[in-house]
Amino acid sequence: MPNHYRYYANFFRSVPDGLLRRLVRKRCQGYSNIRPFLAGRSGLEIGGPSRLFADDHLIPAYGICGSIDACNFSEDNLWSDSVDYKKFGSQLRTRFVAEACDLNGISDGTYDFVLASHVLEHTANPLRALQEWKRVLVDGGMLLLVLPHKDGTFDRYRPFTSFEHLVADFASNVSEDDLTHLEEIVSLHDLSQDPPAGSRDEFRSRCLQNASIRAMHHHVFSPGVLSRMMERTDMRVLSLSIERPFHIVIAAVKAPLGK
């Protein structure tokens, strides 16, 4: 029998630490702490469905929750169609059409958890979105976000958005037609990692239609800024992990008023 030990030892030494962890670990870091906030509970997903929340992926949620509602800014969008909604399984209850920053059809304290995978970067005013997502959570409910890790995505050449910039956007009540970052996005977008974007000119044209398409990444988040965003929204960070090469996962809990 050939001895494969040396081959595998050399292979694993050559793999970056973050990717190695993902090769040998199916779930995100901190999932054991996240799971009790999902199991048997009722939730809302903004911008879903996402394969990351399926049973055999990074953060199993759909198969263990009691029920889930879905919310998108439009019935017809780049991210989902009627077939995609079957991914939720029998747990899916209601589908809402609403802006991430204005869940006007949903009462305060409706859900035990809110999910959003690769959504917040598409939102022009992320602090306002977090405020709204917190509003629909019960006290002690969990907000669970997956965001791009820029080093593994087409945002890798862009600078991180500063916390101060996000606060200014919130204060100015920036809306989804904002194109403040247009020139930076167009010039620094790594088209080699985003074939559907086409040429630089085609990508610019798509970005100019962003109010109706929502394909553009307004912001690039660092783990540190995400933590500050949660702190500003009065959410207690439960876990934060970098799941290389593509994701940052942050879970935060809504503390009862006065605590």
Topology:
Layout: H1 5-14, H2 17-24, H3 31-34, E1 42-46, E2 67-72, E3 92-97, E4 111-117, H4 126-135, E5 137-148, H5 163-171, H6 182-188, H7 200-208, H8 210-213, H9 223-232, E6 235-243, E7 247-254
Parallel strand pairs: 1-2, 1-4, 2-3, 4-5
Antiparallel strand pairs: 5-7, 6-7
Count of folded domains: 1
**CATH-derived topology:** Rossmann fold
* H-E string: HHHEEEEHEHHHHHEE
Uncertain segments of ≥5 residues (pLDDT<50)?
1-24
CATH homology superfamily: Vaccinia Virus protein VP39
N→C terminal distance: 63 Å
Biggest sheet strand line-up: 3-2-1-4-5-7-6
What does this structure look like?
The chain is α/β, with parallel strands linked by helices and 259 residues long. It has one domain (5-254): Vaccinia Virus protein VP39 (Rossmann fold). The chain has helices spanning 5-14, 17-24, 31-34, 126-135, 163-171, 182-188, 200-208, 210-213, 223-232; strands at residues 42-46, 67-72, 92-97, 111-117, 137-148, 235-243, 247-254. Strands 3-2-1-4-5-7-6 form a seven-stranded mixed β-sheet. Helix 4 links the parallel strand 4 (111-117) and strand 5. It is globular. The termini are far apart. Residues 1-24 have low confidence and may be disordered.
